[in-house]
Amino acid sequence: MKRKFKLDSELVLAPMEEYTDIAFRLLCKGYGSAMQFTEMIYPEGVLHNNKKTRKRLLTSEKEKPVILQLFGSDPEKLYETAIKQKDKFDGVDLNLGCSVKNIMENGYGAALLDKPKQVEKIILKLKTIKNMWVSAKIRLGINNKKQGLKIARILDECDIDFITVHGRTAEQKFSGKTDLKAIKEIVKKVNIPVIGNGDIKKPEDAEKMLRYTGCDYVMVGREALKNPVIFRQWKEYREKRNYKQLTLNDKNDIFTKYLKLALKYNIDFKKIKWHMQYFSKEMEKGSELREKINKADSLKKLQKIWYYYLKKQKT
Ligand SMILES: Cc1cc2nc3c(=O)[nH]c(=O)nc-3n(C[C@H](O)[C@H](O)[C@H](O)COP(=O)(O)O)c2cc1C
What we know:
315 residues; TIM Barrel; 2 domains; 48% helix; binds flavin mononucleotide
C-alpha cells in the first residue's frame, strides 16, 4: 500500500532548475528541510539516458523524502519515465507552473493550466504506479485565477497526494506579490494537502502563509539559495517563537558543507560558483566578493577568495 503523505516539518525546498542539485538538496535537508524536489526534468532526457539528465537524477537515501519533478504533456512518456525511476524517488511531481516562454510554447509547464482534460489523463496514468506519491505544482492560472482553481479541483478529484500552489499567474512570472488570498481560496476548495509557495523570506512569512491560507506545508525557493539555514530557523521559531539570526560562522558553515557535498557529487564548477554568488548575498561587501567569485577559474582560487574574505571580516 502507498504511504500516506505526511512530513515531519512544514518547510520544504522548492524545485529550482540549475540549482537544486543533489549537493544543495542534501545541504538543505541537513538544515531541516522536510522534503526535496529535483530540478524539472524532461522525460526524453531520461528515456534516452542523456548525460546531463543522469546527473539530475542522482539521489541519496539521506535526502528522503525526495520527489522527481517532470515536465511534459505526454502521459505515456511521463509514466514510463516515472516508473523507470520509482525505486529512487518517493514521488513524482508534474510541473504545471513553469512560465518560461519556450516551455509554454511547447504546451508544457503552466501552458497545461488551460488543459484540464490533458492534466487529468496524465495524473490518472501516473497514479497507476504503486508506491509513489503523485503530486503537481501549479500557479494561480496563466492569465486568470479561475484556471488555477479549476485545475486544483481536478487534481483533487483525481485524489492526487498533494499540490503546491505558487501564488502568482504565469503571466506575472516573478513580478508582483504572492496572492495569499487566492491560495486560501484553493485550500478551501480542495481536500488534498496543499503546499503554499511564494516570497517566503523568513520564518514569520512561513507562519503567515500557514495561518492565513490554511495550507499544510510551505515551500521556500529563492530565499533558500541565499540562506539554507532558514529551515533550521523555522524549527527554532516554531518551538520558541524566536530564532538565531544568520552569522558569519553560519555562512562559513553553509559554504564549507556545500563545497564538500559538491565535490562528492561532482557538481559542475560553474554551478558551485552560482551557489556561492547566492550564499554571499546580504553579506557585508558582498558585491566585491561576488565580483571576485565571478572571476575565479579554479576551485582552489574560489576557496582562497572565500577564506580571505572571512578572515578580513572577522578582523
Ligand atoms: C532559478 C529558479 C529555477 C526554478 N526552477 C523551477 C523548476 O525546475 N520547477 C518548478 O516547479 N519551479 C521552478 N522554479 C519556481 C520555484 O520552485 C518557486 O515556485 C518560485 O521561485 C517561487 O517561490 P520563492 O518566492 O520562494 O522563490 C524556479 C525558480 C527559480 C528562481
